[in-house]
Amino acid sequence: MNYLKRLLVGKPLKSSENDDQSLTRFAALAMLSSDALSSVAYGTEQIVVVLVTLSTAAIWYSLPIAVVVLVLLTSLILSYRQIIHAYPHGGGAYVVSSENLGKSAGLISGGSLLVDYMLTVAVSVSAGAEAIASAIPALYHHRVLIAVVIVLLLMLMNLRGLRESAGFLMLPVYSFIAIMTVLIIVGLFKIVTGMVPINATAQPGSFVPGISIALLLRAFSSGSSSLTGVEAISNAVPFFKKPRAKNAAGTLAMMGIILAFFFTGITFLNYWYGIIPSEQVTVLSQVGESVFGKGIMYYIMQFATALILAVAANTGFSAFPVLAYNLAKDKYLPHRYQDRGDRLGYSNGIITLALGSIALLMIFQGSTERLIPLYSVGVFIPFTLSQTGMVKKWYSEGGQWLRKSIANIIGALISFSIVVILFIYRLNDIWPFFIIMPILIYVFYRIHKHYQNVAEQLRLADEVKLHEYEGNTVIVLVGNVTQVNIGAINYARSIGDYIIAMHVSLDENSEKEKEIQKEFKEKFPDIRFSVVRSPYRSIINPVTRYVDRVSKKSKKYNYTTTVLIPEFVPNKAWKLSLHNQTALRLRLRLSYRDDIIISTYNYHLKK
Amino acid sequence: MNYLKRLLVGKPLKSSENDDQSLTRFAALAMLSSDALSSVAYGTEQIVVVLVTLSTAAIWYSLPIAVVVLVLLTSLILSYRQIIHAYPHGGGAYVVSSENLGKSAGLISGGSLLVDYMLTVAVSVSAGAEAIASAIPALYHHRVLIAVVIVLLLMLMNLRGLRESAGFLMLPVYSFIAIMTVLIIVGLFKIVTGMVPINATAQPGSFVPGISIALLLRAFSSGSSSLTGVEAISNAVPFFKKPRAKNAAGTLAMMGIILAFFFTGITFLNYWYGIIPSEQVTVLSQVGESVFGKGIMYYIMQFATALILAVAANTGFSAFPVLAYNLAKDKYLPHRYQDRGDRLGYSNGIITLALGSIALLMIFQGSTERLIPLYSVGVFIPFTLSQTGMVKKWYSEGGQWLRKSIANIIGALISFSIVVILFIYRLNDIWPFFIIMPILIYVFYRIHKHYQNVAEQLRLADEVKLHEYEGNTVIVLVGNVTQVNIGAINYARSIGDYIIAMHVSLDENSEKEKEIQKEFKEKFPDIRFSVVRSPYRSIINPVTRYVDRVSKKSKKYNYTTTVLIPEFVPNKAWKLSLHNQTALRLRLRLSYRDDIIISTYNYHLKK
Q1: What is the mean pLDDT of residues B288-309?
Q2: Are the Cβ atoms of A486 and B460 closer than 8 angstroms?
Q3: Mutate which of B15, B444, B472 to test chain A, going by most A C-beta atoms within 10 A?
Q4: What DSSP element (H or E) covers A382?
Q5: Any stretches that span the bilayer, and where are they (chains A, B) (predicted)?
Q6: Per-residue CA distances from A514 to A463, A476, A486, A543, B9 (Å)
């Protein structure tokens, strides 16, 4: 068991090794940008698909829409760079919103993002599994299984630790970056050298009958799904090499530039080559075919795309545990999300995310496309809140707040518009948001209330006064008269002033009961022997009643009460199943009684 | 939770209410004979199907084969009546074989039957589910689910207790008995009055080219599957009203007569009416159609057959728990199979059987026909062993042993022949028997060895000498300095002579550690405060090491060592998840250390 864990997860790391375990920019880009970069695989398509519902001539509108998306991207990147510098301990939207707009805004951000990371993992992994299944059709019926296996692999990788998973992710991410760069450069080269004449469905600016603001807004809101994943870096600042904020901001800028280049490039090529979306082949694949022809380069591109989609899920694995940690630190999630595992990752967060996304995969049986609008809402609400928060922060800090705020104001406005557009035009996809979020917020507050109550109850008075007890009553549970009793009674005598051996008899006045009583009296003449009868065969209730009675009496004499439960500890784990688990249940029940200490006398079976 | 249990299972019964909870002959027949009686639904068919592989003319051989089956049945019934009188405490084949032929023979019988009862449940319930699905074709794809639901219902019924489940079973069993009786009487009446002339495929005694002993033996071994279930009554003697043995023997005789009448009747009608087995319609259904015509009586018969097949599974639920009880009493199965539940049933046996047969249903997806030969082997091996055992018993008791043995000798010989025939002609169906049985026997012996070892280790010397300790060292685990510490330290002082407060620090030399140390010293100036550092963040290892050190020292001073672990007990169960389960894991680990008593100080959170 332990060996298996070591094999899969690696040897434990010291807490002080934390510093070594941090990311260079180069590794961080691989680790944290796959979500954002992989979305260029479908970003352009999302815009064009909406536009062609009107007519193919409307495709030219993808160019101005791409410009607005770029403006949004720029403002987001600038805004998140400011957030990184202002909050170098990480936390992103949750921290920024709660510090500037109040706890509820923070929790809405945090809750949305928690759910969103699960969606990211489910959506990306099932896209990856589908890509694999397209390549090997025999696997088609097993794609949910494949997706689950990928999630489990990602989980293990992340439990092994950051640096090692970054190493694993370098290849897919940098391959994708390389091949996309080649695609766009070759594509533009062919255009500039006149090798490919314009083939567009319509000139920019041509009037398309039936065009409406609503359609353009829907196309824009769809296209902005490319921008999900941008916040990942700001959440993960503490993982960077020092100087952390500077390195994180640099990585974010780099990612923004690459993303902008890819998105514009692909949208432009798509327009110029006059590509019309089809059911079977993705837009990106059509662009690739037009530029490269259906040769080796095309297949490399397809493969790299499939790979980056599969690993995009890893962004969720980096960001979710840190966000859960921040929520747990503020007492809105269970404490355990603060614990670091053997390899310094926040293991509980990693495991929760894996289980959550596996559940989503099971529920939707791998058809996760419908989740994309939900996913966009979950991203743009925190975007809006965190940027509004930044504006408020600059304002409250005074000085040249408007200059600092300009990126944030634009970002907040555009993000907010997207949220509104999604609410209006995509309600039939995003309604679960309005069910999940209130529940989540309620749970956060209940947890918080509990921890507050506990803290209040535990607070010590300034002057602590200890109580002096006169002595201790020990009740020793006795089954048959065996070797176990000797050890238990010896211990009881070492701590107790008054010892009672208690025997539970299942049959009333049976022979066996009398026999045991006689034998006990013979072997232990000085110990009081007390029989508790259990006509209903459950030993729990009669024991509890008897212990209550003794404890009440003890209290009167200013004694404490200890119940000593002997338990077998076999030398092999399977043998545990051969002994009744009554002790466990009894301990559980007694744990609810006041003023009773439950002690376990472990008797080790040597063979 | 508790309420739900009461609702489903009923209020607990006193152990002394055991006597009321026993069966009249009338109820016992319903309760224990459904397995045997339901097998007439397919017994004749099993014979005829084998014969027609040669030619339809061979069907007349079913008559002599039926005679041999009747001989076998008679010898089995007589033999089991003797077993009932000789072993009025129940146990059947397992007890008889182990007492007379040695433990291994007993365990082979017991093991075969345990597996067999699971097979019975799975086979009968899926036959019942298929009957329901034939009636309502929309349910066809859910028949595994239906089967599982039936198993769970049977489980609940049996957990509720014997009498109540017998009540529930009266209707199907007695309806089936009634309709079969009517079928045979009407059928014979029509023959005797000459309303139906003989329509048989061949006269008895006609020569059928190609007939071979092998074919006849296979037909006979198939037909004897009707005799499974006969042993159920001898296992369940303790459930009968007093005088138990007499009532059980009477019920068994009654069941034998009914079974013989049905089996002969149906086989004869089948021969006379010249019915040839077909894929779609069962032989019994064809007989019914010929006798009744396709009217209301026919449908009643079909429905009653489906019902009794479904409840035949209940025989397993009566017999399995008693057999498991007997094996557990002899220490070949875990003790817990001896525990009676709230309603006096052996709950663990009932639940194990339900889970086992649900597993079989899942694995075979409801296509359990292939299990029938396996099931026959599992029945006839214990038959052979128990009857051989009876012969040996009579022989060793001397006197007119041969007269008493005659039924047993015949029964043993025929049963043994069937086993041999099955081994020779059905090896491709019964091979799992040769894998399961050795494993099971091995497990039985391992369990037995363990219990023997335990008993040996626990045996007390004639003279018990208690040890006098000088005092007690108490190690109190301390997290933050809170209210919890007061109670824990108060208790520790009441039992201990030397108190150590131990704090685990996760970061080396951190600020927090120093702060806690200072605060503790301030509040509890008289208590020794000890810091244990955990560079790997797991508190388990360092604590264990520290406790080991203290315990070693304590021992030198003739002190006992107690580790007091404070634990939160929230007022609501869900809140348990909000507190780290470290205490649980720590307790588990420490339970393997020698000479350490683990005590829990439960701090109750009031809100």
Answers
A1: 85
A2: yes
A3: B15
A4: helix A372-397
A5: 58-78, 113-133, 139-159, 171-192, 252-276, 296-323, 344-364, 370-386, 406-424, 430-447
A6: 53, 18, 20, 19, 33
Which amino acid would we find at residue A175? S
Of chain B, the percentage scoring pLDDT greater than 70 comes to 92
Over residues A87-138, the pLDDT tens digits come to: 887 657 888 899 899 999 999 999 999 998 898 888 888 877 776 776 666 7
Q: How far apart are CA A25 and CA A535, in angstroms?
A: 71
Report which of residues A571 and B163 the model is more confident about: A571
**What pLDDT shows up at residue B126?**
81
Helix (H) or strand (E) holding A412: helix A401-425
Sort out which chain B residues have CB atoms less than 8 A from A331's CB and list them. Answer: none
pLDDT number for residue B19: 53
CA distance A181 to B597: 67
Interface test with A, best of B332, B450, B574 (most A CBs within 10 A): B450
Q: How many helices (H) and strands (E) does chain B have?
A: 22, 5
Comparing C-alpha atoms, which of A8, A10, A309, A13 is closest to residue A132?
A309
Q: What is the largest CA-CA distance in chain A?
A: 109
DSSP string over B12-34? ---GGGGGGG-B-HHHHHHHHSH
Q: Which residues pair with B263 in a beta bridge?
A: none
The string of pLDDT tens digits covering residues B107-137 is 999 999 999 889 888 888 887 777 677 666 7
Mean per-residue pLDDT, B342-347: 71
Instruction: Check CB contact under 8 Å for A447 and B578.
Output: yes
CB contact under 8 A, B466 and A486: yes
Position A155, amino acid: M
Chain B environment of A523 (Cβ under 8 Å): 460, 464
Identity at A521, one-letter amino acid code: K
- Say if CB A351 and CB A320 are below 8 A apart: no
- Statement: residue A468 has pLDDT above 60: yes
CB contact under 8 A, B483 and A460: yes
Which class for B439: exposed (0-12), middle (13-18), buried (19 or more C-beta within 10 A)?
exposed
Question: Secondary structure of A523-550 in the HEC alphabet?
Answer: HCCCCEEEEEECCCCCCHHHHHHHHHHH
Q: How confident is the model at residue A229 (pLDDT cuts 50, 70, 90)?
A: confident
Q: What percent of chain A has pLDDT over 70?
A: 92
Q: Smallest Cβ distance to A578: which of B334, B464, B538?
A: B334
B-chain residue closest to A510, CA distance: B16
**For A403-451, how does the pLDDT look when each residue is reduced to its tens digit (9 = 90+)?**
888 888 888 888 898 899 888 888 888 888 899 999 999 999 999 999 9
Q: What is the bridge-based pairing of β-strands A471-478 and A559-569?
A: parallel
Distance (Å, whole) CA B467 – CA A493:
9
What SS3 state is found at A73?
Answer: helix
Find the closest chain A residue to B597 by CA distance.
A601
The CA distance from A426 to B219, in Å, is 68
Closest approach of B143 to chain A, Cα-based (Å): 23
Q: Residue range B71-78: average pLDDT?
A: 87
CA distances A239 to A20, A24, A94, B467, Å, are 10, 9, 17, 57
d(CA B96, CA B105): 9
Inter-residue contact B316 to B150 (CB < 8 Å): no
- Which among B466, B506, B587 has CB closest to A489? B466
Q: State the average pLDDT for chain A.
A: 85
Which whole number is the average pLDDT over A35-51? 84
| Residue with the two structure tokens 């292939």 | B370
**Contact between chains at B454 and A605 (C-beta distance less than 8 A):** yes
**One-character DSSP codes across B177-217:** HHHHHHHHHHHHHHHHTTSS----SS-TT---TT--HHHHH
